[in-house]
Design goal:
The chain has 422 residues and is an alpha+beta fold. The chain contains 10 helices and 16 strands. The strands form 4 sheets. A 7-stranded antiparallel sheet has the order 2-6-7-1-5-4-3.
Length: 422
């Protein structure tokens, strides 16, 4: 049982030109200290020496370096920023070695690399001992930077444990507060649901609800193409090229922001309306190497599932992942008979055992819920509504027999489908 959670609260920063210069200097100093720490570890490894300890690196790369002419400018920024940069380097090496030994789950991590000026995303972190504060006027007071204007969209529930200042590729500044909070259960009378993630429909629920994929990247491709073409025509190293690069970055962040907002709204809705959610553990990395790569990246399944998981922990809900090899699209959710593999263009199929016509996505969502051990209603899997629902046997009309023996009509493309209400 999780008793405490750490959440991030992000807000937009609006530093003045002088504060932007001070932040740029802080970003540069943090980058230099990080690179010096990586170089020190590499030199020790080359010479066959044990890795230097954190205290040794702090004294050599920060305290003693400030007294040298080559690194005297490190004194112009907060010492906490430099110490946190050393801690980031230590964490990067720990994650790398844990990945090699198998202690760290997920993809194998590479060795820490040197940071460069070309890294468009830059950040620095202040802990509580840095004496940062929020002024009475609502500004963020940072050491050796000043009082920076913040666009507050909500109140902080408690005192943050750390503050991170971020500059993204589009030149925007953000501040991220780490807050320790406790779960807030919102009731246990909600139903269970299984979801099937897709490309045409982003989410299909086991109750028959379908949510169309917004396809933000596809819709913005024309503007992105024009901005990229304009960038390619600019001379390298010129100021016009920097302006064109900024336009490309802003076009991309608009797409990313719209996708993130869609994920947040949908994940919050699903968590609030359902007690338990079952989702398939998709092989996103493998799908991203196929011809569907652009659509897979545009959907952002991994980010969406991650939001579901942390919001479920926050609100007392439950998210269950099932194995990616479960044949959810091949098994009839009504009788459980396994059918063969079906091509992607087949969206409706008939079970040869029970004769029901099934919607491929809804049937998969029901099977996902069943594989997770959830209790769901599979009524949404039948895709053809009764043609004469509510008609009495004595009324005039043509009776066409049982639905299970009927055949779907074919459209102009030769694909079978029903006039479904979903």
């Amino acid at each position: 049982m999780i008793t405490e959670l750490q959440l991030r609260y992000g807000f937009r920063l609006y530093p003045t030109p002088g504060q932007q210069t001070a932040l740029a200097q802080a970003f540069g100093c943090a980058r230099v200290v990080f690179n010096d720490a990586v170089q020190a570890r590499q030199d020790a490894h080359t010479q066959g020496l044990p890795a230097p300890k954190a205290a040794e690196l702090s004294k050599r790369l920060v305290t003693d370096a400030k007294r040298t002419p080559e690194r005297s400018w490190l004194s112009n920024v907060s010492a906490v920023v430099l110490q946190q940069s050393l801690r980031d380097a230590e964490t990067a090496f720990k994650n790398f070695f844990d990945s090699l030994s198998g202690k760290r789950k997920g993809r194998k991590m590479g060795a820490p690399r040197f940071k460069t000026l070309r890294d468009r995303r830059q950040s620095i972190r202040f802990t509580t001992n840095a004496r940062w504060s929020i002024t009475i006027g609502g500004k963020l007071r940072l050491p050796k930077i000043g009082d920076v204007a913040v666009k507050w969209s909500r109140e902080l529930p408690s005192k943050p444990s750390s503050v991170t200042v971020i500059k993204d590729s589009a030149g925007r500044y953000f501040v991220s507060f780490v807050i320790d909070t406790e779960p807030e259960p919102i009731g246990t009378d909600a139903p269970d649901v299984g979801i099937d993630l897709g490309l045409g429909h982003f989410v299909v629920l086991s109750d028959g609800t379908k949510i169309t994929a917004p396809k933000f990247l596809r819709k913005a491709e024309r503007k992105l193409k024009q901005a990229q073409q304009a960038l390619s025509r600019k001379e390298k190293g010129s100021r016009n090229r920097d302006k064109a690069r900024l336009k490309v970055a802003r076009a991309h962040v608009r797409v990313a922001d719209a996708r993130r907002d869609f994920h947040h709204q949908l994940s919050t809705r699903l968590i609030r309306e359902n007690q338990a959610i079952a989702v398939e553990d998709l092989a996103v990395n493998g799908l991203a190497r196929t011809r569907l790569a652009k659509s897979v990246h545009d959907a952002g399944w991994s980010a969406f599932v991650a939001m579901l998981e942390y919001k479920a922990a926050l609100y007392g809900r439950r998210v269950v992942r099932i194995g990616r090899f479960e044949p959810t699209s091949r098994v009839c959710s009504n009788c459980g008979v396994k059918a063969g593999r079906k091509p992607l263009h087949v969206r409706v199929w008939q079970c040869q055992a029970c004769g029901l016509w099934l919607d491929r996505d809804i049937n998969a969502a029901v099977n996902v819920a069943k594989a997770a051990g959830l209790v769901v209603t599979a009524c949404g899997a039948l895709v053809r509504p009764p043609t004469h629902a509510g008609a009495r046997s004595g009324e005039a009309g043509t009776h066409r027999g049982d639905l299970s023996s009927a055949e779907p009509r074919a459209d102009r493309r030769g694909k079978n489908h029903w006039d479904s209400p979903w």
